[in-house]
Amino acid sequence: MALGTIFVVFFAEDFLGPFQGFLTTLGVIIAAWAGIMIAEALLRKRDYDEESLYTPHGIYGSVNWKSLILLLVATIIGWGFVVNGAASWLDWQGYFMNLIGGKEGPWAYSNLGVLFALLIGFVGHVVLGANDIKKQEGRA
Q1: Are 115 and 28 in contact (CB under 8 A)?
Q2: Going by C-beta distance under 8 Å and a sequence separation of 6 or more, which residues neighbour residue 139?
Q3: Is the distance from CB of 22 to CB of 4 less than 8 angstroms?
Q4: pLDDT, average across residues 22-33
Q5: 42: Cβ–Cβ under 8 A, 6 or more apart, which residues?
Q6: Residue 66: closest CA among 87, 86, 39
Q7: How many whole angstroms separate alpha carbon 3 and alpha carbon 94?
Q8: For a pLDDT cut of 70, what percent of the chain falls above it?
């Protein structure tokens, strides 16, 4: 955050461009996370076992690798479908936009990547996490 502040205050031409770019970039990650969490909430039939949440040896384990990899994949795909024209340092994003008309096409600034990240997170967790949740809840 300190480096971002220094960049905006001393080097950026304006505040709004880098800020919008930051929000879009972060929005893709948050959308992917939100999709996973919505699926988690819908799949669970019981409350979490609180004691198991605080120990790596509980029924949930220490790391949910499926969800982390899903978050990474959804983020990479999501960033491929967003264009940050207001922040030149984010020109690397939109690498999949050629599939739907390019960075100047009709979908260029629709931020479809945010929607795609949300859907990938949600559907991916339903597919990859349903059996794990059933096992954790003793319903398998």
Answers
A1: no
A2: 45
A3: yes
A4: 94
A5: 126
A6: 39
A7: 24
A8: 99
- Evaluate if residue 124 carries a pLDDT over 80: yes
pLDDT of 54 over the 60 cut: yes
CA distances from 104 to 1, 53, 61, 108, 109 (A): 31, 47, 45, 5, 8
Write out the two tokens for 53. Answer: 């949440």
CA-based torsion, 12, 13, 16, 22: positive or negative: negative
75: tokens are 């983020």
Predicted pLDDT at 132: 94
Provide the b/e sequence for 102-126 (b: ≥16 CB within 10 Å).
ebeeeebbebbbbebbbbbbbebbb
Distance of CA 16 to the CA centre of its chain: 23
Name the token pair of 72.
Answer: 């990474």
Residue spans of beta strands (DSSP E) within 1-102: none
Q: Residue 66: pLDDT above 80?
A: yes
Q: What is the rounded distance in angstroms from the CA atom of residue 121 to the CA atom of residue 29?
A: 10
CA angle 97, 129, 44 (to 5 degrees): 120
Distance CA 131, CA 6 (A): 47
